[in-house]
């Protein structure tokens, strides 16, 4: 196998890549602050820009344009997960990463050369930035396969780094406030593509990293010694790398009844499990997208249109997002611990091991719903100082959301369908996320009704962990019971 220094270098540089580039879209609030300072879409407003003004009424038409850009970009973030995964599966790591680099560099260059007169180009640049970031994440998730039993912890760490990368736009904002032009910041991000290219050819495989990793496997810097070995093991790799995060062992196969019901992709999609999981993911994700997309307008309103108050709260939000990289692995470690515990109990009692595996996802699902409810309650109360608590609950909820999503899909359905189910649930949830725009528009006139409606939807997410708990209890009592 490739040496430990090479694997550690791959791990750390991959973490840095996810932390600095993959999920920068979710720092949108910080970037909107800069765009407004540069008077992007100012022609939609009735006021005259005053460069020295600290108080300036929030322009609804301008805010709606920024919200629409974020809606389109966040939709692409999820919807393109399925084709991005296909590209990675079909054309392997090098091709997928070169496409990611092209999209990312094109996006950063486009933003660098935009201006208030060319603000419409953001509708092109932000989706390209998002899709490039998704491909960076997908190609890096396989790095967990190099570390065996620590695979799930590393993958959740990478997902957390993806969330934390939103802090990059905070750095852009802080530099802008210190007279570093927006163009300079994005030209620097464009130049970083040289680093991405070097990492692609020196620290990443041409194909996929198989799981488990064979003793003679080599990649990257070791290719001149192990090219044939990498090709020889390619047929044995797992097609969807995220399924490794919580992949059950052979002894944890579903019981006969469950195996009968879930043997086809169609039966998985039409199952009650999948339907309620889609509801769970869509509602929680909708809250997050709605909050991020409207946060600048919310802070402006609560601060009485005082930009000097909006700025520190915007910074605080971006700083809390950075801690997602520290929060996410706890979810993976919680589920790994519960899975091992329940599996031992199942062996001692002779109960269904598949039910024990499924039960390990329930606390994660319920905790994510609870965090989302707390976050939603705080966000619905129009008190500026309370938003600090909202920021903390939001980053905790979001850091648990996507790891919990992958965990449930791998535990509740056959591993051979994980890639298709993951892509489908992300694509369908992306369609649901599109309603954030009309909801946000409505909230400007009827904020109480929108908040109550979204809170009721948040309560609906608790149905999912409750039903999963009932199912795994039934399976424990009767291993052959159908789920």
From TrEMBL:
The record lists the organism as: Jaculus jaculus
Instruction: Tell where it localizes.
Output: Membrane
Alphabetical keyword list:
Membrane, Transmembrane, Transmembrane helix
Name this polypeptide is given: Solute carrier family 43, member 3
Q: Which PANTHER family match?
A: EQUILIBRATIVE NUCLEOBASE TRANSPORTER 1 (PTHR20765:SF1), SOLUTE CARRIER FAMILY 43 MEMBER 3-RELATED (PTHR20765)
Topological type in the membrane = Multi-pass membrane protein
Q: Name one GO biological process term.
A: hypoxanthine transport
Question: Where, by residue number, does the polypeptide cross the bilayer?
Answer: 12-35, 65-88, 94-114, 121-143, 155-176, 274-292, 312-334, 355-382, 388-409, 421-441, 447-469
GO CC aspect terms: basolateral plasma membrane
Q: What GO MF annotations does this protein's record show?
A: adenine transmembrane transporter activity; fatty acid transmembrane transporter activity; guanine transmembrane transporter activity; xenobiotic transmembrane transporter activity
Q: Which Gene3D superfamilies match?
A: MFS general substrate transporter like domains
The main place the protein resides is membrane
Matches recorded under InterPro entries: MFS_trans_sf (IPR036259), SLC43A3 (IPR027197)
């Amino acid at each position: 196998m490739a040496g430990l220094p090479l694997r550690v270098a791959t791990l750390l540089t991959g973490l840095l890549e996810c932390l600095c580039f993959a999920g920068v879209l979710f720092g949108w609030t910080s970037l909107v602050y800069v765009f407004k300072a540069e008077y992007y879409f100012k022609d939609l407003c009735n006021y005259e820009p005053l460069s020295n003004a600290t108080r300036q009424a929030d322009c609804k038409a301008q805010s709606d344009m920024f919200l629409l850009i974020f809606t389109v970009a966040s939709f692409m973030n999820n919807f393109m997960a399925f084709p991005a995964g296909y590209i990675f599966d079909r054309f392997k790591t090098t091709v997928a990463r070169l496409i990611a680099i092209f999209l990312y560099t094109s996006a950063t260059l486009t933003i660098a050369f935009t201006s208030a007169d060319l603000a419409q180009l953001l509708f092109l640049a932000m989706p390209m930035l998002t899709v490039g970031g998704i491909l960076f994440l997908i190609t890096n998730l396989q790095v967990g396969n190099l570390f065996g039993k620590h695979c799930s912890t590393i993958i959740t760490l990478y997902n957390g780094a993806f969330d934390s990368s939103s802090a990059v736009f905070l750095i852009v904002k802080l530099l802008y406030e210190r007279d570093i032009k927006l163009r300079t910041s994005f030209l620097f991000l464009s130049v970083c593509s040289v680093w991405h290219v070097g990492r692609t050819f020196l620290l990443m495989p041409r194909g996929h990293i198989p799981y488990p990793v064979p003793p003679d496997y080599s990649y990257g810097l070791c290719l001149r010694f192990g090219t044939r070995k990498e090709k020889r093991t390619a047929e044995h790799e797992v097609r969807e790398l995220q399924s490794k995060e919580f992949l059950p062992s052979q002894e944890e196969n579903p019981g006969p009844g469950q195996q009968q019901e879930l043997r086809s992709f169609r039966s998985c999609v039409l199952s009650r499990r999948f339907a309620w999981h889609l509801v769970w993911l869509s509602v929680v994700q909708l809250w997050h997208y709605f909050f991020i997309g409207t946060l600048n307008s919310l802070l402006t309103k609560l601060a009485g249109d005082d930009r000097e108050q909006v700025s520190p709260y915007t910074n605080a939000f971006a700083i809390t997002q950075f801690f997602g990289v520290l929060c996410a692995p706890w979810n993976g470690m919680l589920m790994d611990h519960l899975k091992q515990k329940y599996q031992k109990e199942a062996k001692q009692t002779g109960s269904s091991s598949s039910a024990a595996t499924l039960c390990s996802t329930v606390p994660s699902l319920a905790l994510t719903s609870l965090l989302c409810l707390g976050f939603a309650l705080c966000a619905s109360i129009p008190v500026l100082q309370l938003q600090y608590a909202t920021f903390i609950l939001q980053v905790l909820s979001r850091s648990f959301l996507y790891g919990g999503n992958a965990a449930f899909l791998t535990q509740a359905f056959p591993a051979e369908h994980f890639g298709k189910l993951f892509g489908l649930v992300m694509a369908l949830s992306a369609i649901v996320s599109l309603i954030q725009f009309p909801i946000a528009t409505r909230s400007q006139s009827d904020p109480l009704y929108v908040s109550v409606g979204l809170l009721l939807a948040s309560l609906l997410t608790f149905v999912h962990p409750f039903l999963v708990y009932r199912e795994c209890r039934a399976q424990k009592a009767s291993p052959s019971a159908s789920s």
